[in-house]
Amino acid sequence: MEENRNKLAFGKKNYSLMLTGIALLILGFVIMSLDTEQYGLGFMGITLGPLVVLAGFAVEFFAIMAKDKKQD
Questions:
Q1: What span, in angstroms and rounded, lies between the C-alpha atoms of 24 and 69?
Q2: What is the pLDDT of residues 11-37, one digit of tens each?
Q3: Helices (H) and strands (E) in the chain, counts
């Protein structure tokens, strides 16, 4: 019973993927804010930034769904 108490919900791989996803999300929002066009209607604000944010959410989803081999 004591060994079940110390187990975390995710493994090291999951947490590192989550941090990568958070970094991608932050990077995407920073890219969108750096757009020099009026109202953010340039390439960085409309195309590049949202794609990076979408990639960040995809990495977060994968991080949650991935199963760590050590927990078997």
A1: 25
A2: 999 999 999 999 999 999 999 999 999
A3: 4, 0
CA 40 to chain centre: 23
- 35, amino acid identity: D
Rounded-to-integer distance, Cα 10 and Cα 71, Å: 8
Exposed e or buried b for every residue in 20-51, given b needs 16+ CB within 10 A? ebeebbeebeebbeebeeeeeebebbeebbee
CA 30 to chain centroid: 14
Q: Quick: pLDDT tens for 30-56.
A: 999 999 999 999 999 999 999 999 999
